[in-house]
Design brief:
TSP_type-3_rpt; calcium ion binding; single chain; mainly beta; disordered C terminus
Length: 269
């Protein structure tokens, strides 16, 4: 799960000129800010060498990115504060436009800035507002795009509505690192996603048409993957290897040993 935010800064850069001239600066920056510290946001560019920076003090980041369950008992969350505004005052909340003698590299968030960089102009705003629009982008980063982890039964191409939950654990596949609930991460079961092939190259050990990351019995030996723990009952099938030439038992159809607690119960009969 990742939280992204965009910020719109409306500020008046106050410039004092002895001769009464008005200085006009065209601020042509892209839409992406970088952030560091408690809350320092900045943009830099070259040709010409310029930067925009916004520093806010006394910001409670826990409140800034606070989430709450979408409903009682749900594992899914939503943001509490979708929009937040801060007043630029030139002291605790500062917005600056600067020009430099050379490329502004490693200017912000570094204890020791470049020794070859000089600030030519530094204009600070004493008024204005910074409006933050916060978006919660949810994904389990298992190597499969969220859109492809949904059967899209509702036809809206949105995995967050009527989501697919293969193992029925309350976490939809696009937020679940273990889609089939077999105690092996989806990413470790080689979905092999690519833009060109999609998921057509996903590993399917037993060739049953269900890729391993959605198959509760990867090797088709009649024993659930999560139960193939011949060496240690630690809920981790990946470290139970009887034949190192083949690999973990859950991928070896010739070895169908179940978890040790089950095997021991049959030893005494």
């Amino acid at each position: 799960m990742r939280t992204f935010f965009s910020v719109l800064v409306a500020a008046f850069v106050l410039i004092s000129c002895d001769d009464g001239d008005v200085l006009t600066v065209e601020l042509d920056f892209d839409d992406t800010y970088q952030a560091c510290g408690d809350l320092v946001l900045f943009k830099t560019k070259t040709s010409p060498n310029e930067s925009l920076s916004l520093q806010l003090e006394s910001v409670d980041l826990e409140t800034f990115f606070e989430t709450e369950p979408i409903e009682a008992g749900s594992l899914l969350v939503d943001l509490v504060n979708l929009n937040q505004s801060y007043t630029i005052n030139g002291s605790t909340n500062r917005f600056n436009y600067r020009t430099y003698s050379s490329e502004p590299v490693n200017v912000f968030c570094n204890d020791v800035p470049s020794a070859n960089l000089d600030v030519i102009n530094d204009y600070s705003s004493n008024s204005g507002n910074a409006l933050f629009t916060i978006n919660l982008v949810e994904d389990d980063n298992d190597g499969i795009p969220a859109a492809l982890e949904d059967e899209n039964l509702d036809g809206d191409n949105d995995p967050s509505t009527m989501p697919t939950d293969t193992d029925g654990d309350g976490l939809p596949n696009y937020l679940d690192q273990d889609d089939d609930g077999d105690n092996v991460f989806t990413s470790a079961e080689k979905p092999n996603y690519s833009v060109e092939l999609g998921l057509t190259a996903a590993q399917d050990t037993d060739g049953d048409g269900t890729p391993d990351y959605l198959d509760t019995d990867d090797d088709g030996d009649g024993v659930f993957t999560r139960d193939e723990e011949s060496n240690s009952a630690n809920s981790n099938p990946t470290d139970d290897i009887t034949n190192s030439a083949v690999g973990p038992d859950f991928l070896n159809p010739r070895n169908s040993s179940e978890r040790s607690s089950y095997s021991l119960s049959h030893t005494f009969h």
